[in-house]
Design brief:
Rossmann fold; alpha/beta; four-stranded antiparallel β-sheet; disordered N terminus; transmembrane helix; Growth Hormone, Chain: A
Length: 550
Amino acid sequence: MIEPHAPAPTGPPRTRGEAGRSQARLPVRPTTGRFLVLAGVFVCAACGLVYELELVALASYLIGDSVTQASVVLSVMVFAMGIGSLAAKRLRCRAAAGFGAVEAALALVGGCSAMALYAVFAWTGDWGGVRSGGPRCLLVGFSLAIGLLIGAEVPLLMELIQRIRRQDAGGAVADLFAADYVGALVGGLAFPFLLLPQLGQLTGALLTGAVNSVAGGALVLGLFRRDLSRRGRRLLLIANLAVLGVLAAAAVLVDDFERAARQAVYGGQVRVALRTGVQEVVLTGGGPGHPVALFLDGRPRPAGRDGSRFREALVRPAMSGGPHARVLVLGGGDGLATREVLRLPGVERVEVVDPDAALVRLARRDPALSALNGRAFADPRVQVRTDDVFRRLRQTHQAYDVVIADLPDPTLTASTKLYSQEFYGLARRTLAPGGRLVVHTGPVTSRPRVLWTVEATLRAAGLDPVPYRVAGRAPGSARRPGGSAETSGAARDWGFVLAARDRPALTLDPHGPRPRTLTPQSLRADARAAARTRVRGLKPSTLVHPRYPD
Protein backbone atom coordinates (compact mmCIF):
# COMPACT_ATOMS: atom_id res chain seq x y z
CA MET A 1 0.00 0.00 0.00
CA ILE A 2 1.35 3.34 -0.99
CA GLU A 3 1.45 6.01 1.66
CA PRO A 4 -0.55 9.07 0.60
CA HIS A 5 1.38 12.31 0.18
CA ALA A 6 0.99 15.01 2.86
CA PRO A 7 -1.27 17.82 1.71
CA ALA A 8 0.54 20.74 0.19
CA PRO A 9 0.58 23.93 2.29
CA THR A 10 -1.92 26.58 1.33
CA GLY A 11 -1.92 30.34 1.76
CA PRO A 12 0.95 32.79 1.46
CA PRO A 13 4.41 31.67 2.61
CA ARG A 14 5.32 32.49 6.18
CA THR A 15 7.84 35.23 6.86
CA ARG A 16 11.07 34.52 8.65
CA GLY A 17 9.69 35.99 11.87
CA GLU A 18 6.50 33.95 11.67
CA ALA A 19 8.41 30.81 10.88
CA GLY A 20 10.56 31.28 13.97
CA ARG A 21 7.58 31.99 16.22
CA SER A 22 6.15 29.06 18.16
CA GLN A 23 3.64 28.96 20.95
CA ALA A 24 5.27 29.76 24.27
CA ARG A 25 5.53 27.04 26.89
CA LEU A 26 3.91 28.77 29.84
CA PRO A 27 3.66 27.70 33.50
CA VAL A 28 0.07 28.97 33.52
CA ARG A 29 -2.95 28.77 31.24
CA PRO A 30 -2.80 30.99 28.11
CA THR A 31 -5.63 33.20 29.36
CA THR A 32 -3.77 33.86 32.61
CA GLY A 33 -0.52 34.39 30.73
CA ARG A 34 -2.14 36.91 28.43
CA PHE A 35 -3.54 38.80 31.43
CA LEU A 36 -0.08 38.88 33.06
CA VAL A 37 1.51 40.28 29.91
CA LEU A 38 -1.10 43.04 29.70
CA ALA A 39 -0.57 43.77 33.41
CA GLY A 40 3.15 44.12 32.64
CA VAL A 41 2.31 46.51 29.80
CA PHE A 42 0.20 48.54 32.25
CA VAL A 43 3.00 48.83 34.83
CA CYS A 44 5.73 49.59 32.29
CA ALA A 45 3.59 52.26 30.62
CA ALA A 46 2.96 53.92 33.98
CA CYS A 47 6.69 53.93 34.75
CA GLY A 48 7.54 55.29 31.31
CA LEU A 49 5.20 58.24 31.68
CA VAL A 50 6.58 58.98 35.15
CA TYR A 51 10.08 59.19 33.66
CA GLU A 52 8.84 61.67 31.05
CA LEU A 53 7.05 63.85 33.60
CA GLU A 54 10.04 63.67 35.94
CA LEU A 55 12.36 65.04 33.27
CA VAL A 56 9.90 67.80 32.35
CA ALA A 57 9.38 68.83 35.99
CA LEU A 58 13.07 68.78 36.91
CA ALA A 59 14.14 70.62 33.76
CA SER A 60 11.44 73.24 34.27
CA TYR A 61 12.55 73.79 37.86
CA LEU A 62 16.27 73.90 37.10
CA ILE A 63 16.18 75.71 33.75
CA GLY A 64 12.83 77.50 33.80
CA ASP A 65 10.41 78.16 30.92
CA SER A 66 8.37 74.97 31.29
CA VAL A 67 6.82 75.19 27.81
CA THR A 68 10.23 75.00 26.15
CA GLN A 69 11.48 72.21 28.40
CA ALA A 70 8.29 70.16 27.99
CA SER A 71 8.48 70.59 24.22
CA VAL A 72 12.13 69.51 24.08
CA VAL A 73 11.70 66.49 26.34
CA LEU A 74 8.49 65.19 24.81
CA SER A 75 9.45 65.77 21.17
CA VAL A 76 12.83 64.08 21.62
CA MET A 77 11.21 61.18 23.45
CA VAL A 78 8.53 60.62 20.81
CA PHE A 79 11.17 60.72 18.08
CA ALA A 80 13.34 58.27 20.01
CA MET A 81 10.39 55.94 20.60
CA GLY A 82 10.00 55.58 16.84
CA ILE A 83 13.69 54.78 16.43
CA GLY A 84 13.51 52.34 19.34
CA SER A 85 10.57 50.51 17.78
CA LEU A 86 12.49 50.07 14.52
CA ALA A 87 15.63 48.91 16.33
CA ALA A 88 13.66 46.34 18.37
CA LYS A 89 12.64 44.47 15.21
CA ARG A 90 16.02 42.74 15.35
CA LEU A 91 15.22 41.40 18.82
CA ARG A 92 11.88 39.79 17.94
CA CYS A 93 13.45 36.35 17.53
CA ARG A 94 14.50 36.60 21.18
CA ALA A 95 11.60 38.70 22.41
CA ALA A 96 11.64 37.53 26.03
CA ALA A 97 15.37 38.07 26.56
CA GLY A 98 15.24 41.37 24.67
CA PHE A 99 12.31 42.67 26.71
CA GLY A 100 14.01 41.70 29.99
CA ALA A 101 17.20 43.52 28.98
CA VAL A 102 15.29 46.61 27.82
CA GLU A 103 13.36 46.85 31.10
CA ALA A 104 16.50 46.47 33.23
CA ALA A 105 18.23 49.22 31.24
CA LEU A 106 15.14 51.45 31.37
CA ALA A 107 14.83 51.02 35.13
CA LEU A 108 18.46 52.00 35.64
CA VAL A 109 18.49 54.98 33.26
CA GLY A 110 15.06 56.31 34.20
CA GLY A 111 15.45 55.73 37.92
CA CYS A 112 18.82 57.52 38.11
CA SER A 113 18.02 60.30 35.64
CA ALA A 114 16.73 62.79 38.23
CA MET A 115 19.77 62.41 40.49
CA ALA A 116 22.17 62.74 37.56
CA LEU A 117 20.51 65.90 36.25
CA TYR A 118 20.34 67.49 39.70
CA ALA A 119 24.00 66.62 40.34
CA VAL A 120 25.08 68.31 37.10
CA PHE A 121 23.04 71.39 38.00
CA ALA A 122 24.42 71.54 41.54
CA TRP A 123 28.09 71.05 40.75
CA THR A 124 28.49 72.74 37.37
CA GLY A 125 26.49 75.93 37.82
CA ASP A 126 23.26 77.57 36.72
CA TRP A 127 21.62 76.05 33.65
CA GLY A 128 20.17 79.38 32.63
CA GLY A 129 23.60 80.43 31.41
CA VAL A 130 24.11 77.29 29.34
CA ARG A 131 22.57 77.71 25.92
CA SER A 132 24.21 74.71 24.30
CA GLY A 133 26.14 71.67 25.45
CA GLY A 134 26.69 70.63 29.04
CA PRO A 135 23.57 70.08 31.15
CA ARG A 136 21.11 70.77 28.36
CA CYS A 137 22.77 68.08 26.27
CA LEU A 138 22.45 65.74 29.25
CA LEU A 139 18.72 66.46 29.40
CA VAL A 140 18.38 65.67 25.69
CA GLY A 141 20.56 62.58 26.16
CA PHE A 142 18.35 61.18 28.91
CA SER A 143 15.22 61.97 26.90
CA LEU A 144 16.71 60.19 23.90
CA ALA A 145 17.83 57.12 25.87
CA ILE A 146 14.55 56.72 27.75
CA GLY A 147 12.56 57.23 24.55
CA LEU A 148 14.58 54.58 22.71
CA LEU A 149 13.99 52.04 25.47
CA ILE A 150 10.28 52.83 25.79
CA GLY A 151 9.87 52.53 22.03
CA ALA A 152 11.58 49.14 22.02
CA GLU A 153 8.97 47.76 24.45
CA VAL A 154 6.02 47.78 22.05
CA PRO A 155 7.19 45.38 19.28
CA LEU A 156 8.67 43.01 21.86
CA LEU A 157 5.47 42.94 23.90
CA MET A 158 3.48 42.44 20.71
CA GLU A 159 5.63 39.41 19.91
CA LEU A 160 5.16 37.98 23.42
CA ILE A 161 1.39 38.41 23.29
CA GLN A 162 1.22 36.65 19.92
CA ARG A 163 3.33 33.78 21.23
CA ILE A 164 0.81 33.13 23.98
CA ARG A 165 -2.18 32.97 21.66
CA ARG A 166 -2.25 33.83 17.98
CA GLN A 167 -4.88 36.39 17.04
CA ASP A 168 -5.39 38.97 14.35
CA ALA A 169 -2.96 41.87 14.48
CA GLY A 170 -5.71 44.45 14.98
CA GLY A 171 -7.05 42.75 18.09
CA ALA A 172 -3.58 42.30 19.58
CA VAL A 173 -2.70 45.95 18.96
CA ALA A 174 -5.98 47.08 20.51
CA ASP A 175 -5.38 45.04 23.68
CA LEU A 176 -1.78 46.19 23.93
CA PHE A 177 -2.56 49.88 23.45
CA ALA A 178 -5.52 49.76 25.84
CA ALA A 179 -3.29 48.47 28.65
CA ASP A 180 -0.57 50.95 27.63
CA TYR A 181 -2.86 53.99 27.68
CA VAL A 182 -4.53 53.05 30.96
CA GLY A 183 -1.09 52.59 32.51
CA ALA A 184 -0.04 55.99 31.20
CA LEU A 185 -3.13 57.51 32.81
CA VAL A 186 -2.25 55.98 36.18
CA GLY A 187 1.38 57.07 35.91
CA GLY A 188 0.38 60.58 34.86
CA LEU A 189 -1.91 60.96 37.88
CA ALA A 190 0.42 59.25 40.35
CA PHE A 191 3.31 61.60 39.60
CA PRO A 192 1.76 64.97 40.66
CA PHE A 193 -0.62 63.63 43.31
CA LEU A 194 1.43 60.88 44.97
CA LEU A 195 5.09 60.58 44.00
CA LEU A 196 6.05 64.26 43.85
CA PRO A 197 4.34 65.47 47.07
CA GLN A 198 5.03 62.35 49.14
CA LEU A 199 8.47 61.26 47.96
CA GLY A 200 9.95 64.16 46.04
CA GLN A 201 11.55 64.13 42.62
CA LEU A 202 14.63 62.06 43.41
CA THR A 203 13.12 59.30 45.56
CA GLY A 204 10.06 59.14 43.30
CA ALA A 205 12.23 58.44 40.25
CA LEU A 206 14.23 55.78 42.13
CA LEU A 207 11.07 54.01 43.31
CA THR A 208 9.66 54.08 39.78
CA GLY A 209 12.84 52.47 38.48
CA ALA A 210 12.59 49.73 41.11
CA VAL A 211 8.96 49.00 40.17
CA ASN A 212 9.96 48.93 36.50
CA SER A 213 12.78 46.46 37.14
CA VAL A 214 10.64 44.13 39.25
CA ALA A 215 7.75 44.16 36.76
CA GLY A 216 9.94 43.49 33.71
CA GLY A 217 12.10 40.88 35.42
CA ALA A 218 9.17 39.05 36.98
CA LEU A 219 7.29 38.90 33.68
CA VAL A 220 10.20 37.37 31.77
CA LEU A 221 11.69 35.14 34.49
CA GLY A 222 8.30 34.00 35.73
CA LEU A 223 6.21 33.62 32.59
CA PHE A 224 8.73 33.18 29.75
CA ARG A 225 11.62 31.55 31.59
CA ARG A 226 11.51 28.52 29.27
CA ASP A 227 12.32 30.82 26.35
CA LEU A 228 15.67 31.62 27.93
CA SER A 229 18.67 29.39 28.36
CA ARG A 230 19.93 28.69 31.84
CA ARG A 231 22.75 31.15 31.26
CA GLY A 232 20.31 33.76 29.94
CA ARG A 233 18.09 33.41 33.01
CA ARG A 234 21.10 33.78 35.30
CA LEU A 235 22.38 36.87 33.49
CA LEU A 236 18.96 38.54 33.50
CA LEU A 237 18.51 37.82 37.20
CA ILE A 238 21.96 39.23 38.01
CA ALA A 239 21.27 42.32 35.89
CA ASN A 240 17.98 43.06 37.66
CA LEU A 241 19.47 42.45 41.10
CA ALA A 242 22.33 44.82 40.22
CA VAL A 243 19.86 47.49 39.05
CA LEU A 244 17.80 47.10 42.22
CA GLY A 245 20.99 47.29 44.29
CA VAL A 246 22.04 50.54 42.63
CA LEU A 247 18.58 52.07 43.06
CA ALA A 248 18.37 50.93 46.70
CA ALA A 249 21.82 52.35 47.49
CA ALA A 250 20.85 55.64 45.85
CA ALA A 251 17.61 55.73 47.85
CA VAL A 252 19.54 55.20 51.11
CA LEU A 253 21.96 58.01 50.23
CA VAL A 254 19.43 60.37 48.66
CA ASP A 255 19.06 62.60 51.73
CA ASP A 256 22.83 63.03 52.09
CA PHE A 257 23.10 63.62 48.34
CA GLU A 258 20.38 66.25 48.44
CA ARG A 259 22.02 68.06 51.37
CA ALA A 260 25.39 68.06 49.62
CA ALA A 261 23.87 69.25 46.35
CA ARG A 262 21.92 71.97 48.15
CA GLN A 263 25.11 73.20 49.82
CA ALA A 264 26.85 73.19 46.44
CA VAL A 265 24.09 75.39 45.05
CA TYR A 266 23.33 77.67 48.01
CA GLY A 267 26.48 77.48 50.15
CA GLY A 268 26.92 75.87 53.53
CA GLN A 269 24.51 78.07 55.50
CA VAL A 270 21.19 76.48 54.45
CA ARG A 271 18.77 76.78 57.38
CA VAL A 272 15.39 76.10 55.77
CA ALA A 273 14.66 74.06 52.66
CA LEU A 274 11.08 73.09 51.92
CA ARG A 275 8.96 72.22 48.91
CA THR A 276 5.62 73.96 49.20
CA GLY A 277 2.63 73.38 46.96
CA VAL A 278 3.79 76.36 44.89
CA GLN A 279 7.60 76.38 44.82
CA GLU A 280 10.81 75.37 46.57
CA VAL A 281 11.80 77.79 49.32
CA VAL A 282 15.38 77.88 50.62
CA LEU A 283 16.56 80.23 53.35
CA THR A 284 20.28 80.61 54.06
CA GLY A 285 22.37 82.59 56.53
CA GLY A 286 21.02 84.44 59.51
CA GLY A 287 24.00 83.87 61.79
CA PRO A 288 26.92 86.18 62.64
CA GLY A 289 28.68 87.18 59.45
CA HIS A 290 26.13 85.37 57.27
CA PRO A 291 23.37 87.64 55.97
CA VAL A 292 19.95 86.20 55.27
CA ALA A 293 19.25 85.15 51.68
CA LEU A 294 16.04 83.77 50.25
CA PHE A 295 15.79 81.58 47.14
CA LEU A 296 12.49 80.75 45.43
CA ASP A 297 12.72 77.82 43.00
CA GLY A 298 16.47 78.28 42.96
CA ARG A 299 16.30 81.97 42.04
CA PRO A 300 17.67 84.44 44.58
CA ARG A 301 15.65 87.33 45.91
CA PRO A 302 17.82 90.49 45.94
CA ALA A 303 19.68 90.67 49.26
CA GLY A 304 22.06 92.99 51.09
CA ARG A 305 22.61 96.41 49.54
CA ASP A 306 21.14 95.14 46.28
CA GLY A 307 17.99 94.15 48.14
CA SER A 308 17.58 97.62 49.62
CA ARG A 309 18.12 99.24 46.24
CA PHE A 310 15.72 96.88 44.49
CA ARG A 311 12.86 97.38 46.96
CA GLU A 312 13.29 101.13 47.17
CA ALA A 313 13.20 101.29 43.37
CA LEU A 314 10.09 99.10 43.33
CA VAL A 315 8.13 100.82 46.11
CA ARG A 316 9.23 104.45 46.52
CA PRO A 317 8.34 105.91 43.07
CA ALA A 318 4.90 104.25 43.16
CA MET A 319 4.21 105.59 46.66
CA SER A 320 5.16 109.12 45.60
CA GLY A 321 3.32 111.63 43.45
CA GLY A 322 -0.17 110.96 44.78
CA PRO A 323 -2.26 109.33 47.52
CA HIS A 324 -0.96 106.10 49.03
CA ALA A 325 -3.26 105.32 51.94
CA ARG A 326 -4.53 102.03 50.46
CA VAL A 327 -1.87 99.72 49.02
CA LEU A 328 -2.15 96.32 47.34
CA VAL A 329 0.99 94.15 47.18
CA LEU A 330 0.74 91.30 44.68
CA GLY A 331 3.21 88.56 45.57
CA GLY A 332 5.74 89.67 48.14
CA GLY A 333 5.10 86.75 50.49
CA ASP A 334 8.50 87.35 52.10
CA GLY A 335 7.24 90.66 53.54
CA LEU A 336 10.18 92.71 52.28
CA ALA A 337 8.21 94.96 49.93
CA THR A 338 5.58 95.42 52.64
CA ARG A 339 8.24 96.60 55.05
CA GLU A 340 9.29 99.28 52.56
CA VAL A 341 5.65 100.36 52.15
CA LEU A 342 5.16 100.70 55.90
CA ARG A 343 8.19 102.97 56.24
CA LEU A 344 6.29 105.79 54.52
CA PRO A 345 3.86 108.01 56.43
CA GLY A 346 0.17 108.08 55.53
CA VAL A 347 -0.27 104.36 54.89
CA GLU A 348 -3.59 103.21 56.35
CA ARG A 349 -4.13 99.74 54.90
CA VAL A 350 -1.94 97.22 53.07
CA GLU A 351 -3.32 94.06 51.50
CA VAL A 352 -0.78 91.39 50.54
CA VAL A 353 -1.86 88.60 48.16
CA ASP A 354 0.51 85.65 47.72
CA PRO A 355 -0.40 82.09 46.70
CA ASP A 356 2.24 80.43 48.90
CA ALA A 357 0.94 80.03 52.46
CA ALA A 358 4.16 78.29 53.53
CA LEU A 359 6.30 81.25 52.45
CA VAL A 360 4.01 83.67 54.31
CA ARG A 361 4.20 81.46 57.40
CA LEU A 362 8.01 81.41 57.15
CA ALA A 363 8.09 85.22 56.82
CA ARG A 364 6.03 85.48 60.00
CA ARG A 365 7.80 82.89 62.16
CA ASP A 366 11.41 82.55 61.09
CA PRO A 367 13.45 84.84 63.40
CA ALA A 368 15.98 85.92 60.76
CA LEU A 369 13.48 86.50 57.94
CA SER A 370 10.93 88.22 60.19
CA ALA A 371 13.69 90.50 61.48
CA LEU A 372 14.69 91.27 57.89
CA ASN A 373 11.13 92.21 56.93
CA GLY A 374 10.67 94.19 60.13
CA ARG A 375 7.83 91.89 61.22
CA ALA A 376 5.71 93.63 58.65
CA PHE A 377 2.96 91.02 58.71
CA ALA A 378 2.38 91.67 62.42
CA ASP A 379 1.45 95.30 61.72
CA PRO A 380 -2.31 95.81 62.31
CA ARG A 381 -2.56 97.74 59.03
CA VAL A 382 -1.50 94.67 57.04
CA GLN A 383 -3.92 92.01 55.85
CA VAL A 384 -2.41 88.91 54.21
CA ARG A 385 -4.39 86.69 51.85
CA THR A 386 -3.04 83.41 50.50
CA ASP A 387 -4.79 83.25 47.16
CA ASP A 388 -4.09 83.11 43.46
CA VAL A 389 -3.09 86.63 42.44
CA PHE A 390 -5.03 86.59 39.16
CA ARG A 391 -8.18 85.28 40.85
CA ARG A 392 -7.95 87.85 43.63
CA LEU A 393 -7.69 90.73 41.15
CA ARG A 394 -10.67 89.38 39.24
CA GLN A 395 -12.85 89.06 42.37
CA THR A 396 -11.95 92.21 44.29
CA HIS A 397 -14.22 95.27 44.12
CA GLN A 398 -12.00 97.50 46.25
CA ALA A 399 -10.00 100.46 45.01
CA TYR A 400 -6.33 101.02 45.82
CA ASP A 401 -4.09 104.04 45.57
CA VAL A 402 -1.02 101.94 44.81
CA VAL A 403 -0.66 98.43 43.37
CA ILE A 404 2.82 96.89 43.69
CA ALA A 405 3.42 93.78 41.56
CA ASP A 406 6.28 91.99 43.34
CA LEU A 407 5.93 88.88 41.18
CA PRO A 408 8.25 86.23 39.72
CA ASP A 409 10.12 86.85 36.49
CA PRO A 410 7.84 87.26 33.44
CA THR A 411 9.94 84.86 31.37
CA LEU A 412 8.85 81.96 33.60
CA THR A 413 5.91 80.23 31.99
CA ALA A 414 3.93 80.03 35.24
CA SER A 415 4.22 83.82 35.65
CA THR A 416 3.48 84.90 32.08
CA LYS A 417 -0.24 85.37 32.75
CA LEU A 418 0.66 87.85 35.52
CA TYR A 419 2.30 90.08 32.91
CA SER A 420 -0.51 89.86 30.34
CA GLN A 421 -2.82 92.52 28.95
CA GLU A 422 -5.76 90.85 30.71
CA PHE A 423 -3.99 90.95 34.07
CA TYR A 424 -3.08 94.62 33.70
CA GLY A 425 -6.66 95.35 32.68
CA LEU A 426 -7.83 93.86 35.99
CA ALA A 427 -5.18 95.87 37.85
CA ARG A 428 -6.29 99.06 36.11
CA ARG A 429 -9.85 98.41 37.27
CA THR A 430 -8.69 98.32 40.92
CA LEU A 431 -6.85 101.66 40.75
CA ALA A 432 -8.51 104.57 42.55
CA PRO A 433 -8.42 108.01 40.86
CA GLY A 434 -4.77 109.02 40.71
CA GLY A 435 -3.69 105.45 41.52
CA ARG A 436 -0.39 103.96 40.30
CA LEU A 437 0.79 100.47 39.38
CA VAL A 438 4.44 99.41 39.44
CA VAL A 439 5.91 96.26 37.85
CA HIS A 440 9.45 94.89 37.87
CA THR A 441 10.67 93.19 34.70
CA GLY A 442 14.00 91.55 35.52
CA PRO A 443 17.42 92.54 34.17
CA VAL A 444 17.46 95.10 31.36
CA THR A 445 21.00 94.80 30.03
CA SER A 446 20.60 91.14 29.09
CA ARG A 447 16.86 91.20 28.27
CA PRO A 448 15.67 94.63 27.09
CA ARG A 449 12.82 93.07 25.07
CA VAL A 450 11.12 91.96 28.30
CA LEU A 451 11.05 95.50 29.69
CA TRP A 452 9.59 96.94 26.52
CA THR A 453 7.10 94.09 26.09
CA VAL A 454 5.79 94.91 29.58
CA GLU A 455 5.62 98.58 28.55
CA ALA A 456 3.67 97.73 25.39
CA THR A 457 1.33 95.44 27.33
CA LEU A 458 0.58 98.09 29.95
CA ARG A 459 -0.11 100.60 27.21
CA ALA A 460 -2.48 98.16 25.50
CA ALA A 461 -4.33 97.76 28.82
CA GLY A 462 -5.12 101.51 28.88
CA LEU A 463 -2.32 102.64 31.19
CA ASP A 464 0.39 105.24 30.56
CA PRO A 465 3.73 103.58 31.43
CA VAL A 466 7.06 105.13 32.44
CA PRO A 467 9.98 102.63 32.34
CA TYR A 468 13.12 103.09 34.42
CA ARG A 469 16.26 101.08 35.01
CA VAL A 470 18.17 100.85 38.29
CA ALA A 471 21.73 99.54 38.49
CA GLY A 472 22.52 96.69 40.88
CA ARG A 473 25.77 95.25 42.07
CA ALA A 474 28.74 95.75 39.81
CA PRO A 475 29.34 92.90 37.35
CA GLY A 476 31.76 90.16 38.27
CA SER A 477 29.98 88.49 41.18
CA ALA A 478 27.86 86.09 39.16
CA ARG A 479 26.49 83.06 40.86
CA ARG A 480 28.64 79.96 41.00
CA PRO A 481 28.24 76.61 42.75
CA GLY A 482 29.18 76.88 46.38
CA GLY A 483 29.02 80.66 46.33
CA SER A 484 27.81 82.34 49.49
CA ALA A 485 24.39 83.89 49.73
CA GLU A 486 25.95 87.34 49.75
CA THR A 487 27.56 86.88 46.35
CA SER A 488 24.90 84.73 44.74
CA GLY A 489 22.62 85.94 42.03
CA ALA A 490 23.95 89.50 41.79
CA ALA A 491 22.39 91.49 38.98
CA ARG A 492 23.75 94.23 36.73
CA ASP A 493 20.44 96.06 36.80
CA TRP A 494 16.66 95.73 37.15
CA GLY A 495 13.92 97.13 35.01
CA PHE A 496 10.71 98.68 36.37
CA VAL A 497 7.64 100.23 34.84
CA LEU A 498 5.46 102.76 36.70
CA ALA A 499 2.01 103.17 35.15
CA ALA A 500 -1.25 105.04 35.75
CA ARG A 501 -4.31 106.12 33.78
CA ASP A 502 -2.56 109.46 33.22
CA ARG A 503 1.18 109.70 32.89
CA PRO A 504 2.66 109.35 36.42
CA ALA A 505 5.45 111.50 37.76
CA LEU A 506 8.67 109.57 38.40
CA THR A 507 9.67 111.19 41.67
CA LEU A 508 10.25 110.59 45.39
CA ASP A 509 8.04 111.86 48.20
CA PRO A 510 10.01 114.65 49.95
CA HIS A 511 8.00 114.10 53.16
CA GLY A 512 8.92 110.45 53.58
CA PRO A 513 12.10 109.06 55.13
CA ARG A 514 15.13 109.64 53.01
CA PRO A 515 15.91 106.67 50.71
CA ARG A 516 19.18 104.94 51.27
CA THR A 517 20.05 104.45 47.61
CA LEU A 518 17.81 106.64 45.43
CA THR A 519 17.52 110.36 44.71
CA PRO A 520 15.17 112.28 42.38
CA GLN A 521 18.13 113.00 40.15
CA SER A 522 19.16 109.34 39.98
CA LEU A 523 15.58 108.33 39.13
CA ARG A 524 15.49 110.72 36.19
CA ALA A 525 18.83 109.35 35.04
CA ASP A 526 17.42 105.83 35.44
CA ALA A 527 14.49 106.73 33.16
CA ARG A 528 16.88 108.08 30.53
CA ALA A 529 19.00 104.93 30.80
CA ALA A 530 15.93 102.77 30.23
CA ALA A 531 14.85 104.87 27.25
CA ARG A 532 18.20 104.19 25.57
CA THR A 533 17.41 100.44 25.57
CA ARG A 534 14.06 100.90 23.80
CA VAL A 535 13.02 98.10 21.44
CA ARG A 536 10.36 99.34 19.03
CA GLY A 537 7.54 97.50 17.34
CA LEU A 538 6.82 95.02 20.14
CA LYS A 539 3.29 93.70 20.54
CA PRO A 540 1.49 93.28 23.88
CA SER A 541 1.49 89.92 25.63
CA THR A 542 -1.89 88.25 26.17
CA LEU A 543 -3.11 85.08 27.83
CA VAL A 544 -3.45 83.25 24.53
CA HIS A 545 -0.35 84.78 22.93
CA PRO A 546 2.45 85.27 25.48
CA ARG A 547 5.36 87.18 23.99
CA TYR A 548 8.06 87.16 26.67
CA PRO A 549 11.33 85.67 25.39
CA ASP A 550 13.40 83.41 27.60
